[in-house]
Automatic annotation (TrEMBL):
It comes from Streptomyces gossypii. This is 3-hydroxyacyl-CoA dehydrogenase family protein. Residues 4-183 form the 3-hydroxyacyl-CoA dehydrogenase NAD binding domain. InterPro entries: 3-OHacyl-CoA_DH (IPR022694), 3-OHacyl-CoA_DH_CS (IPR006180), 3-OHacyl-CoA_DH_NAD-bd (IPR006176), 3HC_DH_C (IPR006108), 6-PGluconate_DH-like_C_sf (IPR008927), 6PGD_dom2 (IPR013328), NAD(P)-bd_dom_sf (IPR036291). Keywords: Oxidoreductase. Coiled coil: none annotated. The keyword tRNA processing does not apply. Pfam families: 3HCDH (PF00725), 3HCDH_N (PF02737). Pathway: Lipid metabolism; butanoate metabolism.
Length: 282
């Protein structure tokens, strides 16, 4: 089993992936462009471990050992000896392609290049490399230490061996995997939540029902743990707007076309919990 992991991007997702991987025994190098970003990421990991220790779900020695397996860097060349590389940067195709093009030159021949993208086709990212058969999607969910799912995505040229290594990696961190066999924008999970959030936002925008009642309908009628509009606020209205727009651009399917209300909310900075106002006030 490969045991050296490079995580590109120390934000909420990248630091979470680094955390669960280090806890599972992987030697992790966490890379971001600034020392400040790396400090925020490692502070978040330490705080998360402290919570698990405080609740008795992890002993302090295991937490310390996991932390010791994480090193940080601003140098992309540090991924050179990694067996698996997971990219977890902002959801912009140009940014991801530039990183993968560089990683293609840097990493060793047998390495797996994975993206944590939630909506961008893996094939488009893989095309920036000379090894598209070694590129795969590993879509973790936030917060990574708490969420049990990893969505594995085959690009048009992803090999069976690459998919198997990606599954082995994700399962080693305690995740249950689903496989997306055809590289459609948004994969399975982002397509489902985007369609639900977009329709819920349209119902809200047109005055059919309040945000609270739409969410109650999904919770009590369908058994959802959280309603779609509360989910949008938790994830970030801007994040879900961007995901729906990506899927709509690729598919031209009207059900993914976000309503104007969502665009105006983002224009106004009403992004959900992180801004204090979204479909709900916090």
């Amino acid at each position: 089993m490969a045991k050296k992991l490079a995580v590109i991007g120390a934000g909420l997702m990248g630091s979470g992936i680094a955390q669960v991987s280090a806890q599972a025994g992987w030697e992790v190098v966490l890379r971001d462009v600034t020392d400040e970003a790396l400090s925020r990421g490692t502070d978040g990991i330490k705080a998360s471990f402290a919570k698990f220790v405080g609740k008795g779900k992890l002993d302090a020695e295991a937490a310390d050992a996991a932390l010791a397996r994480i090193t940080t860097t601003t140098d992309l060349e540090a991924a050179a000896d990694a067996d698996v590389v997971v990219e977890a940067v902002f959801e912009k195709i140009d940014v991801k392609r530039e990183i993968f093009s560089t990683l293609d030159r840097v990493v060793k021949e047998g390495a797996i290049l994975a993206s944590n993208t939630s909506a961008i086709p893996i094939t488009k990212i893989a095309a920036a490399t000379s090894r598209p058969e070694r590129v795969v999607g590993t879509h973790f969910f936030s917060p990574v230490p708490m969420m049990g799912l990893c969505e594995l995505v085959r690009g048009h040229k992803t090999s069976d061996e690459t998919l198997a290594v990606a599954r082995e990696f994700a399962e080693s961190t305690g995740k249950t995997c689903i496989v997306v066999n055809r590289d459609v924008a948004g994969f399975v999970t982002t397509r489902l939540i985007s369609a639900l959030v977009v329709e819920a936002a349209k119902l809200h925008e047109s005055g059919v029902a309040s945000a609270e009642d739409i969410d109650i309908a999904c919770k009590l009628g369908f058994g959802h743990a959280m309603g779609p509009l509360a989910t949008a606020d938790l994830t970030g209205v801007d994040i879900l707007l961007h995901a729906a727009e990506n899927i709509y651009t690729e598919s031209q399917d009207e059900k993914f076309a976000p309503p104007e209300q969502m665009r105006r909310m983002v224009d106004a900075g009403d992004l959900g919990r992180k801004s204090g106002q979204g479909f709900y006030r916090y």
